[in-house]
Amino acid sequence: MAAHPKEDRLRSLNLFKKADDKAIDHLASAADEVTVPAGKVLIQQDHNHNEIYVLMSGAASVVVEGEEVAEIPTGELVGELGFFVQGPASATVTTTAESDLLIIPYNRFDQILGDNPDLVRSIAEELAERLYAMDEKIS
User: Fold this and answer.
1) CATH no. for residue 29?
2) Which of 21, 42, 100, 120 would be a feasible disulfide site paired with 57, CB 3.0-4.6 Å?
3) Residue 39's domain spans which residues?
4) Number of domains the chain contains
5) How far apart (Å, rounded) are the C-alpha atoms in residues 49 and 52?
């Protein structure tokens, strides 16, 4: 049996723990895996972008109007709000350590979600948890 490192790494992330094999295979085939240094800007506030990132290792910070509002740990999806809202980014996301990323273009991600409705639910749950955590932080 051949090794499938991209698929195995995706399966290891909490974000995709409920995804079936078909969804994982689609994500893996759509994604480019890259390693970027600390300080790499992935998303620039007020600019449009057209990719979703999966932070496979490393870390990134989220900055709004010059103020850091969150740290993104390994296993998180980055850029998903731009996918769902389709407008300029509300924050700048920059790696804070050397990071391994999967990069999935929006058009491919849209196809994957259309073919894998359970994945939509999993991502929606993740987004809801983030909003809840942010509300708790603000309160």
Assistant:
1) 2.60.120.10
2) 100
3) 5-138
4) 1
5) 9
